[in-house]
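Need residues for this backbone.
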């Protein structure tokens, strides 16, 4: 809550001096109960200084109206227009919250990223315990962004969290005011540790990223499911199923079997390139290259809760991956590799440049093995979360032994970085 022009200016100056990776601005001016929390004198400061710095702003309809000079907001169409008008002021994303929209059976929010408008609906919970819903939503978005989520995914997770807490807290009776509080700690009290899908993406999953190769496994006489299970038992934290030659039906059957193995261990399974196969086998997500389906389209097809990774070689591609809603970046090839023809080598400097340009967690790939994995992890950038390997695991006699060895090397390197 920023009640004076002076405080807004101090905050603006501090953010210019100490930039943050993602800035969430909740322009707290009018509460749900109708209380005015910031007078009209600071509106121009908000518009001119704070909003253009924001990665996302989250006004309710009264605040959006005030920021737009009293523009009436009475319908969802009005909210869409307001989101676009607010975006023109400078924030990279806008979420107009419609919880106070009159005559609406659902709680409808409008998210606008400069290109697409998303209408986000949730159940309207009948309760007086709505104090702090807007602050909670914005804080949850910030927390999800800090964990490495894409913007749209962060918004959807936050909205789902608020809906879940409201439902859990709807019958609490504390105090005599118009609004009561809700209980943010429901997960500790009712045993719910994750109110959205099991296996939600965690950047630490990228630590030891195993990319399969069917030809290598055939060479060593191993079924794919056995190879994946051995890699997981050896310490692989995420698996990408890559298949270039199999027919779709064969690939789908293989993918279903591999999903079963990974689910039994609680390890995410991603499908390389094939969004259709990921949908059909209910994999945890996909990894796409620059010549594959754009991450933005993959996100639309798969929804907010699936994992989407994008291969990037340049800072520009890394920045676009964030805009398109990816969850992480695969950067490489770091070193020369035989698994991909005509793959330019970036080296550690190129890897570092992509990491520094990205707001997303990064996994390094390309020619990485037990001899150089430690050097990669010691690059010294905070968003480099792990390494992805193919032949170093699967073109070996014992996948289990090689994975254990590589995991130990990575753990040692990670301890040195800390």
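Answer:
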């Amino acid at each position: 809550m920023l009640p004076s022009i002076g405080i807004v200016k101090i905050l603006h100056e501090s953010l210019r001096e100490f930039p943050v990776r993602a800035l969430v601005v909740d322009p707290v001016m009018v509460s749900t109960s109708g209380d005015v929390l910031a007078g009209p004198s600071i509106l121009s400061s908000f518009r001119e200084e704070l909003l253009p710095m924001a990665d996302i702003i989250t006004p309710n309809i009264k605040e959006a109206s005030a920021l737009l000079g009293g523009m009436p907001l009475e319908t969802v169409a009005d909210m869409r227009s307001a989101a676009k008008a607010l975006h023109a002021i400078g924030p990279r994303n806008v979420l107009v919250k419609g919880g106070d929209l009159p005559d609406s059976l659902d709680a409808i929010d409008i998210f606008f990223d400069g290109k697409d408008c998303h209408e986000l609906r949730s159940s309207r919970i009948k309760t007086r315990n709505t104090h702090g819903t807007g602050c909670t939503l914005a804080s949850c978005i910030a927390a999800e962004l800090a964990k490495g989520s894409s913007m749209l995914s962060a918004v959807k997770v936050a909205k789902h969290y608020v809906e879940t807490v409201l439902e859990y807290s709807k019958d609490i009776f504390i105090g005599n005011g118009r609004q009561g509080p809700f209980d943010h700690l429901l997960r500790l009290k009712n045993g719910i540790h994750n109110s959205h899908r099991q296996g939600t993406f965690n950047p630490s999953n990228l630590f030891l990223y195993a990319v399969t190769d069917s030809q290598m496994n055939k060479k060593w006489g191993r079924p794919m499911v056995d190879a994946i299970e051995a890699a997981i038992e050896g310490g692989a934290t995420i698996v990408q199923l890559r298949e270039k030659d199999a027919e779709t039906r064969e690939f789908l059957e293989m993918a279903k079997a591999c999903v079963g193995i990974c689910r039994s261990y609680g390890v995410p399974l991603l499908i390389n390139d094939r969004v259709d196969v990921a949908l059909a086998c209910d994999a945890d997500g996909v990894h796409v290259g620059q010549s594959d389906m754009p991450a933005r389209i993959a996100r639309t097809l798969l929804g907010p809760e699936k994992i989407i990774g994008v291969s990037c070689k340049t800072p520009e591609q890394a920045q676009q991956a964030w805009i398109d809603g990816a969850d992480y970046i695969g950067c490489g090839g770091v070193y020369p590799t035989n698994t991909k023809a005509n793959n330019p080598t970036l080296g550690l400097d190129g890897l570092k440049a992509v990491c520094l340009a990205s707001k997303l967690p990064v996994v390094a790939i390309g020619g990485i093995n037990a001899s150089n994995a430690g050097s990669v992890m010691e690059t010294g950038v905070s968003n480099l979360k792990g390494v992805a390997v193919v032949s170093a695991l699967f073109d070996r006699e014992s996948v289990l032994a090689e994975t254990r060895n590589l995991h130990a090397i990575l753990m040692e390197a990670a301890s040195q970085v800390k």
